[in-house]
Each structure stands twice: as structure tokens, then as C-alpha cells.
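OP here, attaching both records as promised.
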Amino acid sequence: MEVDFLVIFIIILAVFLEANEGSLSALRDLLTALSSIIIGMITYKITFLLSRSFSLGLFAFLVSALGVLLLISLLFRRREKGRLSIINRIGGAISGFFLGIGASLAFLIILTFFSPLSVGEAKLGNKILDILPKIYYLADLIDLPFPMLKNPYAAEWENWNVQFRERINFSRLDKSRCIQCGGRVRFKGYFRKSGILVSPLFICEKCGRKSDGCQTFEGFHKLYGKCVIDVARKRVLLDCGVWENGKGVVPKGRCPVCGKELNFHE
């Protein structure tokens, strides 16, 4: 409940401040925030593509986003306001509401790293966190290569060190091949599982097997940098840890990525 009160406070504060600024100033603040994020993302993508460095990309994002905020604040310095009309204040309050939602989302994401349990119990907070999948759709649309944690396959956890890799555009794995039956899978979208964890969902059109992409030949290559056949040769039954099917399987057929095929006499 404490988290929800903080979220409500952030939203009310943003509404109050922007209502006092008036609709034009509030709209400018909203557009400034959006512009800084968009330009920051573009700068990040260009920097990453040129350097292949997540750190340089993040630095470029921060510099460009803050630069836009500073530039616009200098160009449009606040002037003393006269008496604001009710309509003007209402317009400012509406813009403030959206700014408050954005600020609350950022607050909740940061808080999750320090107190995931309190965020998980926040009803309003979880409603706001449901915005997260839409950010993934946007990242797919502009093909934004932000970093994501590189997860090893289950058997490799013992020797694993924290590593990051380029984000996978999961929407491009639509119609990949299912490892159980060889049928085509359909990308059903992104879904928030818990906290800030967002996972893609794929369902095989033929056998109905679900996964985050790991139960497809192409997806396994993307996620783990190896063929699912190599893992199966270690006598491992495969299932998805995110979207469990309740049944581990052995991949059937030839991998369309590397051409490997499991020999059941191995």
C-alpha cells in the first residue's frame, strides 16, 4: 500500500504543478520529455551500431536526452504568468497526469531492484507496470538494440558470469519452427509475468506448445547462441521455464539454422 500512496503522490504532484503552469506550458513539458527520450533513443541506436558498446550507447543517450531538456528550457524560459483560466488549468492538469504516469513508471522500475516484494503488492503500481509490454512493442518497431541479460541454459548456471547482449527482436521470430513437431509458431505478443519481467509468448500452430522462443530452433539459437540439438545430445529434455508446458521434449527434425539433426542412436 505504501508504494501505491507514493505513486498517487507523484501523479497528484505532477497534476498540481502542471495545472499551475497552464495548458501550454504543461504541453510543452510533456512534449519536451517525449522529445528528449526519442532523440536519446535515436542517438543510442546510432552510437551502438557504430561502436557495438552498450556503455557508449547509454552515455550518448544520457547526454543527448539531457541536452535536449537543457536546450528547450533555455529557449523557452518561463515567464511570469497572469491569472490562468479554468480551462487552461484543466489542460495543464491533463498533461501533468501523463507526466505523472511516466514518472511513476520510472520510479516503480527503479524501486523493483531494491524492493521487489513491495512493488509486487502494489495494486495501482502493477496497473502502471502493465505499460511495460508496450515499450517492448515500440522497441521492436524501431529495432532498438538496448542491452538485455544474457541467460545461459539451465545446465550452464554454475559457471555463469553476468553478461549482456543485444536485445532480441522477438517479433521477427514469428513462424519459427517448433522443436517438438516442426510446425510453425505464432508470436502472440509481450506479456508482463511479474515485477518488471516481460516475456514474449509463442504458440505452435500445430501442437500448441508454448514458449518464450526457446522451444523453437531459431529462437534457441538467438537466446543461447547454440543449437538446441547440441543441448539435447546431453540427454536433456527441453521445456520453457517461463511458459511451462509440463512436458520436456526432444527436438525432432533438422535445425533450419545450422542443419544439425539429432541421431537417436547417439
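Record two, same layout:
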Amino acid sequence: MSDETSSPAGSEPVSIPLAADAPESMSFEDAVRSLSADRQKLTAPAESASPAADSAEPATADAKELAVEADDAAPPEEDPSGEEEPEAIEPAEELPPIEPPRSWTKDEKEAFKAWPREAQESIARVTSSREAEFRRSQNEVATKEKALAERLQAAEQAKQQYEASVQDHLQALEREQRREFPDIKTWDDVKAMQASDPLRYQAWDLHQKELALVSKQAAEVKDSQEKEFSSKWTEHVQKENELAAETIPELRDPEKGPALVKRAAERLQEIGFKPDELQQLAEGRASISIYDHRLQRLIHSDLKLADIQKAKAAVVRKPVPQVQRPGAARPANTGVAQQIQALERQLANATGNQAIAISAQIHQLERKAASRR
């Protein structure tokens, strides 16, 4: 007879045999008591063996402690050679070099490399801070300049729009004046209109007041434009005079300069410019075309002068020693040489076609003298 106990799901039931002297039949309570007694018998040997194991563990721990104390009490082993091994020293990590300030000179940068690292770090830190502050200031100035330029541009655009609107308004009022009051031309017409048509007179009077106000604004705009133009024109004249004086030094002379300007004005009148026209050109009130016949005449005269100067440079040459053939020297052709010298003196003061003709004569005499040698 055996007792079956329940087991976890998925496993076989466990059978526990009953004692041999167990009765063939017993009640449920008797079966439980018999089963409990059998279980106590099975677990008793294991419980009696555990105290022995517990008593053995302290003995083993004591043995281990004695072994550790013996090792500590034993003298350290000495090296047979009698020398102590030196401790290994780890090499210090090499730091990257510090660059000198970029604004320093070459000699200063070379001296910077020989300074202690603490000094280099301090200088680099201060320099970096200053450069950052300088860049920040530069950026602030650039930002302010950009904002100022934008505001100036916006103000200039607003000014131009205002000036244009004033002119448009004035023209519109003048057209309205001609359309609504074409018959009002004299003061008597105004009086008659006031007596016969007071409402129309009131409208005319209001229109006249508005026209006077806008006319005043237009006059102010024109005056402002005149002043601005005059200022810019003065700057232009000064700049161009400075450039001209670089190639015409006489303009800087207090006596030769005014005399040269006066002579230029007289010459311009000789070729066709009128005094009032020259005055307007000098004030910037008029302009001249590059195709103006008088300007073309001036350009042509300058080209001829340039050709004459080139001809003088080609003819007037430095005298060179005469090449003589081996043997007895022949007498020089004194007549031809004297003629050439005389012509060269004339060429120094000649101009225009006369200079060209003299240059041709000198060239012919030189060829003639060369053929006789």
C-alpha cells in the first residue's frame, strides 16, 4: 500500500510506501498520522549530520587565520643580489607648444619660445582676451556702421519721395487752378467773384492758400537741392584740380597758376566758347558732349603737339664720336656739319610744319655727310 501525493503540473505523482506493520485498512486520520511518522524518520539522519558539519567549519576557519598570521610574521625574502629594484617612473605627458601672439614681430616670437611655460600661458591668456575684446569691438562697430548706412539710405529715399511728392502736388494744384478758375486773372476778377458768387470765392481762396503752402515747400526743396549740389560740385572741382596739379606743376604756383587759368579761358573763347557758356560749365550748370566740334579741335591740337614732341626726340640726338677708317684721317666735312648744327638750333624753337620740314632737312644732310665718308 502506498500513499500518492500531488506534484506540480507536468510531473509524475510521487508514491510513498507505508510501513510493513501498517494495517490493510485505516481511516483518513490514521493514514495522515502514519505518513507524518514515516517522514520524521526519513529526515532525522540529515538533521543529526548538520551539527557535525557546523562544528567542522570553525576549525577550518581557525586554521586559515593561523596560516595568515604565520605568513605575516615570516621575514621578507631578500634579493640574492642585494640590490633593490628601482620603482618605474612614468614619463610625463608632453604638452603642446604655446603659439606666440600673431601681432608680435619675428624677434619677439623667437624670444617667446625661450620663456617659461607659466609666462607663456599668462601672456597667451591675456593676448587671447584682448584679441577677443578687439574682435567684439570691431563687430559692434561694423554692425553700427551697417545700421547707420541703412538708416541713411532709408532717409535719403524718404527725402527723394518727399521732394517728388511736393513737386507732383504743386503741379496738380496748378492744373486745378487753370481748370476751376480760368477766368480769374486779375484782382478785379477776384472782387467781382466775391460779390457775385461768395461760395466760389471761398473755394478759390482756400485753393490759393493751399497753393501758397505747397509753393513754399517746393521752394525749400529747391533751395536744399541747390545747396547739396553746390557742396558736391565744390568737392569735385577740388579733387580734379589736385589731379591736374600733379601733371601741371604751374597750377600750384600762386602767380603762374592764375595766369595759366586766364590764358586757358582766353584760348577757349578763341576756339568758339562764349563767356556765359564757360561760366555755366565752371559752375556745373551745363555739360559738353565729347563730339562738340570745339572739343574735337582741342583734341586735334593736342595730338599734333604730341607728334611734334616725338619728332624732336627722334631728330635731336647726342653727338657720338666719328668713326674713322684705318690709315690717315680725312678732314671732316665742316660745311655740312655747320649746316646741321644751325638747323638743330632752329629746330629747338620751331613748331608745327616748320619743325617737321627742318627735321627732314637735317636727315638729308646727315645722309649726305655719311655718304662722303
